[in-house]
Amino acid sequence: MRFRIDIRRKEGLSDPEGLTTLTALQNLGYSAVTDTHFGRTIYLDMDGDDAAAASEEVESMCRRLLANPVIEDFDIEVVG
What is the CATH number of the domain that holds 55? Predict the structure, then answer.
């Protein structure tokens, strides 16, 4: 079973990479770009047939290690 985890900064928090990229894009003439945000995607392959139990385990992994719950939100999706 494959899981896709999308991790991003919480709304309202500073995103230095996004701000730097926005400025660079606008300096290159891409004036239609009004905002950029950076995040990361993690793919996990897991053994087992119980999707609900595996999803709970992946959520636990996110809360304990993969994401910083103070400054980041995450979404989990079964992709295979």
Answer: 3.30.1280.10
